[in-house]
Design goal:
Blueprint lengths: L8 H9 L4 H12 L2 H21 L8 H15 L32 E2 L3 E4 L2 E7 L7 E7 L8 E3 L3 E7 L1 E4 L2 E4 L3 E4 L8 E2 L5 E7 L3 E3 L1 H7 L4
Helix pairs in contact: 1-3, 3-4
Bound molecules: zinc ion.
């Protein structure tokens, strides 16, 4: 798995310093399991963040601190291998009806995943409960081959980690391992590839707004 779509640097920095809310944090963690490139970037931000904290605490920064930090990042980067974390079962169990080949990310361990409920033809949603943040807007989305995700916009950032299958929208095609970050400006209507279903882990920072009757039907889920 070689992801082609990644979280923004800003998102990875917020992940590294712990300011990303629990929902998006979970989705980014799922991405990091399969992306050595982003794991390296997060470590770099963590190292820089640590140095900044030391500087703010008034501790004298060694003259070679920056060079040593960059050395460490280079060493860790070189030694890093693609090693996805082993998946552990979620406490609520695996929802029934997911594609047999799908391995749920280890990041979901500890989360209770509700049953997948149909909300539109070919579209099923399972609510993901994040420990410590019951209000986090996270869901597992299972969409049938060739089906579209209802036309929607969102108030904040939307994070989508593709777990299985692939979909496309006006910006490109996204497959398993990709993380797609979309801001509230975008009005998009993704469509799943014709050859099989697509399963995504989705988190939103703001409220999701579907249009029309479907918006009313989906309200209890998002
Ligand atoms: Zn990545």
């Amino acid at each position: 798995m070689n992801p082609r779509a990644h979280p923004s640097d800003e998102t990875l920095a917020r992940f590294a310093v712990g300011t990303l809310p629990a929902g998006p944090r979970l989705v980014v963690a799922a991405h990091l399991e399969g992306c050595a490139c982003c794991r390296r970037t997060v470590r770099a931000f963590e190292a820089v963040g640590g140095a900044l904290v030391e500087a703010e605490a008034g501790l004298p920064l060694a003259p070679d601190a920056f060079a040593r930090t960059m050395d460490r990042i280079a060493r860790e980067g070189a030694g890093m291998v693609h090693r996805p974390a082993p998946a552990r079962p979620a406490p609520g169990g695996r929802p029934t009806g997911l594609p047999p080949g799908l391995v749920l990310p280890a990041a979901l361990a500890g989360c209770a995943i509700g049953p997948l409920r149909p909300v539109a033809p070919g579209v099923r949603i399972g609510r993901v409960r994040v420990p410590g943040d019951p209000k986090a807007n996270v869901m597992l989305l299972d969409i049938g081959a060739g089906r579209g995700i209802p036309d929607h916009t969102h108030a904040g950032l939307e994070f989508t980690q593709v777990l299985h299958g692939a979909y496309h929208d006006h910006r490109g095609r996204y497959a398993a391992g990709d993380l797609v970050e979309v801001d509230g400006e975008v009005d998009h209507a993704p469509v799943v590839d014709a050859d099989g279903p697509c399963v995504c882990l989705v988190a939103m920072e703001g409220a999701l707004r579907f249009r029309g009757l479907l918006g009313v039907l989906l309200r209890p889920f998002v």
